[in-house]
């Protein structure tokens, strides 16, 4: 259990409002310079207000950190765990300042987003670059883990359980966050479409593992202006299509999310569930990894893998499916956002 050269783990996440007064400033943080229409912001604000002005994401990160600390202790891994967000308190910069004051010099970063995209990867690398600027703390971001057994395994297990309790002929709909087509094109490098390919690979793996042939991939949480193309089909349109094709039962598997974010509890559990109800479709939503022990163990395994790699060893790099393990460092033009040229963590 040798974490050297690292002396801390930093959990890096999105952040979310804790109370009604936080909602508008949070949305302003998220959308600064992102060109999101006003109507969309009002609508998304309503989703948060509908849940008491509180996002589930912060409590989920607190639970994940507690589970990681327990797992580290159980395995004799002596590494303090810190937490910093892009859009809400505790902010990344404040956390790295606290880390510097505590004497941390080299921290490994686990980001709560599993796939390649500007929003889920490069933007975090921009944030991490800024967070460590002029501080004596060096940060290292862990590789993407969408195809790690500790991420895929819980989906396989929990989809199997859901199907065992669901009617014969249940169609599996894998769901992730929609992103603009252009963001998908740029993900993983110009024209690489890593975001879509990675999700297709995970969906194929889970369905293949279960020997389940009736499945598809759909998207939720589209925002942006209507004339800009985003990945589709939208989950609600897709449910209508499935119903028209004679499907009478669906299991929705949110492979794009590591825990039950607002997108999951609103866009899937509230909105898509209502669409299914209106169509007379049986609807079950499969859990996200959350604090599943295999997922918690993934964090430790990735930390030790990267530590070994930094020490010049050649650790095993577990990866399922046909895309192979993502490298420790993203390629140079990975997930570039059109128009922006901000410095990033290597
Ligand atoms: C790929 C992706 C992930 C990665 C998956 C992951 O990290 O898990 C993610 C995570 C999240 N996104 C979140 C919330 C929001 N995202 C927004 C806007 C956007 N997201 C986008 C994509 C993604 N987003 C995009 C392309 C936009 C358009 C603006 C832009 O081009 O940047 C907006 C603005 C309003 C709206 O447009 O919806 C909000 C409020 C929360 C918190 C949820 C909670 O509170 O539980 C989380 C974890
Ligand atoms: Fe988002």
UniProtKB/TrEMBL annotation:
GO biological process, one term: heme biosynthetic process
Name under which the protein is recorded: Coproporphyrin III ferrochelatase
Biological role: Involved in coproporphyrin-dependent heme b biosynthesis. Catalyzes the insertion of ferrous iron into coproporphyrin III to form Fe-coproporphyrin III.
Subcellular location: Cytoplasm
Family recorded in the similarity comment: Belongs to the ferrochelatase family.
A Pfam family the protein falls into: Ferrochelatase
Record's keyword terms, sorted: Cytoplasm, Heme biosynthesis, Iron, Lyase, Metal-binding, Porphyrin biosynthesis
Organism taxonomic ancestry: Bacteria, Bacillati, Actinomycetota, Actinomycetes, Propionibacteriales
Annotated catalysed reactions: Fe-coproporphyrin III + 2 H(+) = coproporphyrin III + Fe(2+)
Binding site for Fe-coproporphyrin III: 55, 124
Gene name as annotated: cpfC
GO CC field: cytoplasm
GO molecular function terms attached to this record: ferrochelatase activity; metal ion binding
Residues the record lists as binding Fe(2+): 177, 263
InterPro entries the record matches: Ferrochelatase, Ferrochelatase_C, Ferrochelatase_N
Pathway terms, separated by semicolons: Porphyrin-containing compound metabolism; protoheme biosynthesis
Species of origin: Aeromicrobium camelliae
EC annotation from Swiss-Prot or TrEMBL: 4.99.1.9
């Amino acid at each position: 259990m040798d974490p050297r050269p690292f002396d801390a783990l930093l959990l890096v996440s999105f952040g979310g409002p804790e109370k009604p007064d936080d909602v508008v400033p949070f949305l302003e943080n998220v959308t600064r310079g992102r060109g999101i229409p006003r109507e969309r912001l009002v609508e998304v604000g309503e989703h948060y207000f509908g849940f008491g002005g509180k996002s589930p994401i912060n409590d989920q990160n607190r639970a994940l950190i507690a589970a990681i600390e327990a797992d580290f202790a159980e395995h004799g891994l002596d590494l303090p765990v810190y937490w910093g967000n892009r859009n809400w308190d505790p902010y990344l910069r404040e956390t790295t300042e606290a880390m510097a004051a505590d004497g941390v010099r080299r921290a490994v970063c686990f980001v709560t987003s599993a796939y390649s995209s500007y929003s889920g990867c490069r933007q975090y690398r921009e944030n991490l670059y800024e967070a460590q600027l002029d501080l004596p703390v060096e940060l290292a971001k862990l590789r993407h883990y969408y195809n790690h057994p500790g991420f895929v395994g819980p989906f396989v297990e929990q989809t199997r359980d859901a199907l065992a309790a669901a009617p014969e002929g249940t169609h599996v709909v894998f769901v992730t966050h929609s992103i603009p087509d252009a963001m998908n094109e740029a993900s993983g490098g110009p024209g690489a479409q890593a975001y879509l390919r990675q999700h297709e690979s995970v969906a194929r793996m889970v369905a293949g593992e279960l020997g389940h042939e009736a499945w598809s991939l759909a998207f939720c949480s589209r925002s942006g202006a209507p004339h800009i193309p985003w990945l589709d089909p939208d989950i609600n349109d897709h449910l209508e299509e499935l119903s028209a094709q004679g499907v009478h039962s669906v299991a929705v598997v949110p492979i794009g999310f590591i825990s039950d974010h607002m997108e999951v509890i609103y866009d899937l559990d509230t909105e898509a569930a209502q669409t299914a109800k209106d169509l007379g479709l049986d609807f079950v939503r499969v859990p996200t990894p959350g604090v599943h022990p295999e997922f918690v163990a993934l964090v430790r395994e990735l930390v030790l893998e990267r530590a070994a790699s930094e020490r010049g060893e050649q650790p095993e790099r577990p990866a399922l499916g046909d895309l192979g393990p993502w490298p420790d460092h993203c390629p140079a033009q990975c997930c570039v956002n059109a128009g922006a040229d901000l410095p990033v963590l290597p």
